[in-house]
């Protein structure tokens, strides 16, 4: 087989000093489906962004068909026959499918856009690749799977021979995933080359011809997919044998701390993303929330923490309604929150570590000295937390943005855990961070639980959810579809059927999570 | 962190050098006495006590406005109403200075407080519009400046105009309200001490109090501030009110220190200059006097050059424009900075891995 693409010695350093790619070599053959796997933060997306001209590497060269090319913008990448479907779709929601597909290369008639021709082009293209889309539908109304097809067609119309798909299945249902795979195989038949970024090994096994594994910004191996097992791949991905085993004792649940009653949330387009959600979290218990992303978890978390206003349903903390309390009032009552996106909500990246650590308590008496802040107290407090949570830094005056992802997360966790919370909401607490930091955070969550904190854990990582949770609910389509009080009796496969909405427990079974 | 500071210093210095170089070029092109012109421009302000005093006098209003803008910019509120607040602060001090008759020890502070108070109230307008209805403070404060200008002129011309003066000015201020001069033969006044005090107060306020902390966190990442429980709307309000107070105070001090009547018939422009000062000082109160002094120095230098040679003083605008453009342009020298980052990341990598980047 002929090598169509070669990336050689690619090194990329981000402005915050994080080395995302370290002398990576990557090569793809013509007409293959090549999987690029690795944990979050392993450098897969960075490598692909470099290939697509969105990032410039510090070192290294890219060869297309044996010829050295310099790709310094997506425009050049497209001209060289490279197309990319991003994790977050780049479509204009208010335009139709056809308008999106011809955007920037619109067919014209007497100086005006020829909409009829645009629809024709779209339908012809859809026919050719057997990707069924409604050319006249408005993109906003389409389901996610459809939007993805539009993205693929967009790339194909621009002449993509090499198609990069960045975690295409993360947002798809299993049926949509199957459909996507069929389409990808057809594209392969037509001679297209596909680079498939994923960390779902089952899918990688199913669809790819070869697989490149990345860890900590380095290429740690290239294999024919048929010659390796999922275990082999996972070992290389995480760099050790056991995937994850968490030491913890049997939980001893106490009183109900948080009670959510009949919570309903209608989004801006009138669609309900939370439907009559009711559950309780008890003290000394970790309640896991499993589910494919986008099934109402984000709305739920934002409502409980106070970031989002709501009008239907009730929130009770220790039996008292907290529906209309401000974020500050909720925090004062003992709610702590590790946000899903640490750079947006978790930290002020330009501020120092100390300033980030005191953010939820800077007004407290102990940190102030009359009208001035108590520098000495802030320093000793920061030093204590840096040591306690093993935050690797040069000093507490260092800017947070200079830290690695795992250490930034430790700053967030240190702040949120040290306030002695009654209720902790941990939303993807270990997403995209290294193994060491992950272990530390897991240990600290269990410590809090043992001291009587009620923990609500939301995670897209099934392994984490299964290992860490004491009890578990599953969300699908804005509803709770299952409740398990004994996780030793559940398998990941069974959980999967609930997560995908193929199965649903009875009303009585689900109601048990109210403990009332 | 030190590298970051170093980078910003070098970047500012390079921006200034480039713009000075361009000015040299222009002077050599248009002037028949270029060396004479340049020496007046660069060292003229140091040649006489009076000239140097002019530099200090001019830096006082620049310091006040630079501080006012800095504090609002720190909260990421692009309120540029300092101009109007400064103007109205001077009007308020005029009203107090003319209509009241009090002993100096009360009269002078009262006039300054009146100016500050009015400034604070006025910038409350764009602030509340922003925090209640999310109206862009940039637009509303910009428009507010013109309203305030005409309103101020109306007060002076209709109620306080001295018809016997022969030109459009107010009645003379009571002498009990004037800021005394610091040195005979110059116009340098005690207002400079008020300015220095404000620099120190604002520095402590921003970096050593919980209110300043809330302002900075809101400015650095508003979503983060909200999520940790800071009342962001309140912060947006008080940051702008404080900015208004300082600008208003500056207007009062300028009027009471430099004039004996209200004489402005147009906006003096110090509020706009405050933006330049804040940008040069990176919104840090301790750097505000440095930036104000620099701006003031090149203004006076250009003035001397224009008076004594054939080069017009407008060349200063060229320097200003270039410096601001180069500092505001984020990618100016970004490559150098990135090389620095990469080098350091590599060094760290070598240390941690005891080998090469493999």
TrEMBL record, chain A:
Keywords: ATP-binding, Cell membrane, Membrane, Nucleotide-binding, Repeat, Sugar transport, Translocase, Transport. InterPro entries: AAA+_ATPase (IPR003593), ABC_carbohydrate_import_ATPase (IPR050107), ABC_transporter-like_ATP-bd (IPR003439), ABC_transporter-like_CS (IPR017871), P-loop_NTPase (IPR027417). Gene3D superfamilies: P-loop containing nucleotide triphosphate hydrolases. One of its GO terms (molecular function) is ATP binding. Residues 5-241, 258-502 form the ABC transporter domain. It is a peripheral membrane protein. Transmembrane segments: none annotated. GO terms for cellular component: plasma membrane. Its main location: membrane. The keyword Cell membrane applies. It is found in: Cell membrane. The keyword Disulfide bond does not apply. This is ABC transporter ATP-binding protein.
UniProtKB/TrEMBL annotation, chain B:
It holds the Pfam family BPD_transp_2. Keywords: Cell membrane, Membrane, Sugar transport, Transmembrane, Transmembrane helix, Transport. CDD domains: TM_PBP1_transp_TpRbsC_like (cd06580). GO terms for molecular function: transmembrane transporter activity. Signal peptide: none annotated. The chain crosses the membrane at residues 12-31, 51-73, 85-102, 108-129, 141-160, 188-207, 235-259, 315-334. Coiled coil: none annotated. This is ABC transporter permease.
């Amino acid at each position: 087989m002929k090598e169509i693409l070669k990336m050689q010695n690619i090194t990329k350093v981000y402005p915050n000093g994080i080395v995302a790619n370290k002398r990576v070599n990557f090569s793809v053959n013509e007409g293959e489906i090549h999987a690029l796997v690795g944990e979050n933060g392993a450098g897969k997306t960075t490598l692909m962004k470099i290939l697509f001209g969105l990032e410039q590497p510090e070192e290294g060269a890219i060869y297309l068909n044996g010829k050295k090319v310099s790709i310094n913008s997506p425009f050049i990448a497209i001209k060289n026959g490279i197309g990319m479907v991003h994790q977050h779709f780049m479509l204009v929601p208010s335009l139709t499918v056809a308008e999106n597909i011809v955007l920037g290369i619109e067919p014209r008639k007497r100086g005006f856009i020829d909409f009829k021709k645009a629809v024709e082009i779209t339908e012809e293209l859809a026919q050719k690749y057997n990707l069924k889309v409604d050319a006249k539908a408005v993109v906003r109304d389409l389901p996610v799977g459809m939007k993805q097809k539009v993205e693929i067609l967009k790339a194909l119309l621009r002449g993509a021979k090499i198609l990069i798909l960045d975690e295409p299945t993360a947002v798809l249902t299993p049926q949509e995933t199957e459909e996507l795979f069929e389409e990808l195989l057809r594209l392969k038949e037509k001679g297209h080359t596909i680079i498939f970024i994923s960390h779902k090994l089952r899918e990688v096994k199913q669809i790819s011809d070869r697989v490149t594994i990345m860890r900590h910004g380095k290429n740690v191996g290239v294999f024919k997919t048929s010659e390796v097992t999922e275990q082999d791949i996972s070992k290389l991905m995480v760099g050790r044998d056991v995937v994850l085993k968490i030491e913890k004792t049997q939980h001893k649940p106490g009183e109900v701390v948080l009670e959510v009653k009949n919570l309903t949330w209608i989004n801006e387009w009138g669609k309900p993303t939370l439907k009559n959600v009711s559950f309780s979290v008890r003290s000394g218990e970790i309640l896991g929330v499993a589910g494919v992303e986008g099934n109402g978890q984000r709305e739920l978390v934002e409502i409980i923490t106070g970031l989002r206003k709501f009008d239907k349903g009730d929130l009770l903390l220790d039996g008292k309604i907290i529906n209309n309390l401000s974020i500050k009032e909720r925090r004062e009552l003992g709610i702590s929150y590790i946000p899903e996106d640490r750079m947006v909500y978790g930290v002020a990246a330009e501020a120092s570590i100390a300033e980030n650590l005191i953010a939820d308590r800077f007004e407290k008496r102990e940190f102030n000295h009359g009208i001035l802040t108590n520098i000495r107290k802030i320093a000793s407090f920061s030093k204590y937390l840096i040591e306690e949570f093993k935050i690797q830094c040069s000093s507490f005056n260092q800017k947070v943005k200079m830290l690695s992802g795992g250490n930034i997360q430790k700053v967030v966790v240190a702040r949120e855990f040290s306030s002695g919370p009654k209720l902790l909401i941990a939303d993807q607490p270990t997403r995209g961070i290294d193994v060491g930091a992950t272990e530390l955070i897991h240990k600290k969550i269990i410590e809090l639980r043992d001291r009587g904190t009620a923990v609500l854990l939301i995670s897209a990582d099934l392994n984490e959810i299964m290992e860490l949770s004491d009890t578990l609910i599953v969300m699908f389509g804005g509803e709770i579809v299952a409740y398990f009080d004994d996780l030793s009796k559940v398998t990941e496969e069974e959980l999967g059927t609930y997560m995908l909405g193929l199965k649903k427990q009875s009303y009585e079974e689900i109601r048990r999570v109210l403990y009332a | 962190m030190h590298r970051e500071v170093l980078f910003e210093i070098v970047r500012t210095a390079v921006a200034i050098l480039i713009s000075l170089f361009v000015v040299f070029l222009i002077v050599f092109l248009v002037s028949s006495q270029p060396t004479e012109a340049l020496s007046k421009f660069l060292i003229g302000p140091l040649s006489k006590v009076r000239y140097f005093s002019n530099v200090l006098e001019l830096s006082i209003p620049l310091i006040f406005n630079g501080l006012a803008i800095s504090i609002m910019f720190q909260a990421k509120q692009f309120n540029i109403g300092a101009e109007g607040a400064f103007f109205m602060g001077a009007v308020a001090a005029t009203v107090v200075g003319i209509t009241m008759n009090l002993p100096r020890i009360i009269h002078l502070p009262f006039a300054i407080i009146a100016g500050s108070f009015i400034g604070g109230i006025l910038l409350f307008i764009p602030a509340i519009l922003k925090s209640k209805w999310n109206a862009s403070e940039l637009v509303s404060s910009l428009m507010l400046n013109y309203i305030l200008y005409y309103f101020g002129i109306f007060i002076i011309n209709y109620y306080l105009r001295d018809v016997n003066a022969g030109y459009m000015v107010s009645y003379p201020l009571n002498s009990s309200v004037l800021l005394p001069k610091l040195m005979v033969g110059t116009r340098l006044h005690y207002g400079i001490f008020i300015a220095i005090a404000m620099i120190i107060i604002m520095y402590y306020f921003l970096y050593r109090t919980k209110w300043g902390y809330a302002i900075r966190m809101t400015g650095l990442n508003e979503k983060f501030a909200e999520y940790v429980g800071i009342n962001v709307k309140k912060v947006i309000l008080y940051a702008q009110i404080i900015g208004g107070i300082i600008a208003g105070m500056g207007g009062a001090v300028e009027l009471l220190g430099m004039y004996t009547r209200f004489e402005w018939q147009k906006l003096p422009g110090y509020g706009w200059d405050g933006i330049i000062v804040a940008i040069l000082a990176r919104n840090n109160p301790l750097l505000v006097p440095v930036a104000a002094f620099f701006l003031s120095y090149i203004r006076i230098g250009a003035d001397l050059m224009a008076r004594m040679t054939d080069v017009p003083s407008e060349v200063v605008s060229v320097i200003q424009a270039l410096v601001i453009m180069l500092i505001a342009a984020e990618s100016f020298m970004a490559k150098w900075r990135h090389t620095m980052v990469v080098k350091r990341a590599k060094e760290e990598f070598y240390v941690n891995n005891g080998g090469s980047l493999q």
